[in-house]
Write a structure and sequence with these properties.
Blueprint: E1 37-43, E2 52-56, H1 62-76, E3 80-83, E4 86-90, H2 94-103, E5 108-110
Parallel strand pairs: 1-5
Antiparallel strand pairs: 1-2, 2-4, 3-4
Length: about 110
């Protein structure tokens, strides 16, 4: 038990006015579709030769990013994922993705 570290992160203080400060959580606000500047590119690196369409530049909450990629996957009829601030749609789906984004108000889309 001696070697076990205190995992709670609380340090004892003799100051009676001491209060634990909670870390600030930065609430990221999702921009409107017309304000998003998305870039679409094709990538095959580190994917065993498989091709994916990558959508970058989305500014917003993780839940909104996952919802957008879900809609794109459904429209294209393929799989994909949303992680590490990027959205992936399996296969060369650039034209379909651009078409869907423009139709749904994402005006600033670059290929």
């Amino acid at each position: 038990m001696k070697n076990k570290k205190n995992s709670s992160g609380i340090i004892y203080s003799t100051n009676p006015d001491f209060k634990i400060e909670e870390e600030e959580q930065n609430d990221i606000v999702t921009l409107l579709p017309s304000e998003q500047k998305l870039k679409i590119r094709l990538e095959t690196k580190h994917r065993a030769g498989k091709t994916v369409t990558m959508i970058e530049g989305f500014i917003g909450k993780e839940a909104d990013r996952e919802e957008l990629v879900k809609k794109l996957k459904n429209f294209c009829g393929t799989g994909g994922s949303a992680k590490d601030n990027e959205m992936l749609v399996q296969g060369d789906q650039r034209e379909k993705v651009i078409q869907w984004l423009l139709k749904n108000g994402y005006a600033q889309v670059k290929k």
